[in-house]
# Entry
Amino acid sequence: MHDDHDDQSPPQPPGMDAFLERAIELALENAAAGQLPFGALVVRDGTVLATGVNTSLRDHDPTAHAEVDAIRNACRDLRTLALPGATLVSSCEPCALCHAAAASAGILRVVYAAPKEVAFAALGAPAGPPGALLTQMQRALRSLVPGQIVHIPTEGAGRPFDRFTTSVGRP
# Structure
């Protein structure tokens, strides 16, 4: 069986735990606001360049993911299309869309707190042929750059999903 999680994690940059905790807090705040429980940061040289949250429900936009929002905000704030040397920090495992957005911005390292199985348990997995295609796309992208996306188990990573399902229920 193929495992999408990288167990051979390279050493973490200093402060990564705090950045992961911040991404989780953003996801918790977003869930409390009735939005999907995802948060992300773009970090470079120990500094948060921008944050993002998922606004798919509010905006009726399937591309309004937290990671994409954080990348857009960082690029807009810095007036650039490229974020070399930056790390994308996410509360949950990024999908193929978010992986492609990071690559488009030149982000070569992505770290996340909760594996996608935590999100699927709370929100449901993408169903049918579209869900299978998304999983295949995620695997294909990851195979192109092994080790680019790294799971860093983080205490409390499931809390945003618990808050969302308790306060709002399933979408």
In short: Residues 1-9 have pLDDT under 50 and may be disordered. The beta strands are 39-44, 47-53, 87-92, 109-114, 149-151. The radius of gyration is 15 Å. The CA atoms of residues 42 and 71 lie 7 Å apart.
